[in-house]
Amino acid sequence: MSMADSRMKLQASLPVVSFDYAGLVAWAQGFVSKYKGLVVTEEQIPEIRDIMAEINKAKINLDNARKETVKELSAPLKDFEGKIKQVNAIFDETYRFLGDQVQHFVEQERETKRKLVLGIIADELASRRNEIEPFDIPVQDKWLNKSTSQKAVREAVHGIIDQHIESERLRRQAVQARQERAAAIEQAVKAANAEHGINMPVHKFMDFLNTDPDTDFNTVCDRIKKAAESEVARLSAASTVSAVPQPAQKQPVETPASHEPAACALPTVESGPDKTMSIIISFSPANEGAVRQALAELKKHCTSYGARVR
Fold this sequence. Notes:
Distance between the termini: 73 Å
Order of helices and strands: HHHHHHH
Number of strands: 0
Oligomer: single chain
Helix content: 55-70%
Number of helices: 7
Strand content: under 5%
């Protein structure tokens, strides 16, 4: 017997309900026996409905007796449960009182450990300042556990820094590869323009797919070549149309000289084919608004313009 059993001095016994089960069965069977196998006619429907009501009433009365008996037998159990819960509340109150104090000390220990972990992070970043700029390393919850040693924390931080350095290396490599691809595309477009005497804009080919280093450069060159051939064909068709003789224009009728002052001549504008410039820039998210504003101003001075943010 447990300590709780000895204190409560339980004297439990299973409830016993005495009733004549066989008599109930015989009564129920006798009640419905005269209706078994009965073939109902349309004329008997009102009478049969009365019989059905009597059968249902007998069932309800019996079931109500069951419910009342169960309620009476359950009352001592419910009273017992309520009293035990009241005693448990005494334990719960003291448990919470002691637990709050223990948790206070646990939180103090974790806060002390947090400061120690922050110092480890700062030391590790300082020791790698020649490799990477300082960045935020969140304190992981498991690092604050007493079971996690300082050595384990330092190794984890070291691994995070290594991973960050590798990620930055790959990012710079990707940026450089895109810049080199953009420069190669610009040279290819200029070469196609010089070969065919056309002026295709470079930005037309600076889409994400063409500047992706994973895209085969021969494929990009084929696109430039086909675009150049299409441009040559377009210009040839346009020159053919312009060569068709046009109806003679009527000669303007000379009018007497007016005494009004002559209009001022407009300033001359330098003529020639449009120039193309490719720009690839990187900027901090904090400066995105200023960069977009600068690009909007630049767009006003361009005959064609294309930009994509990655």
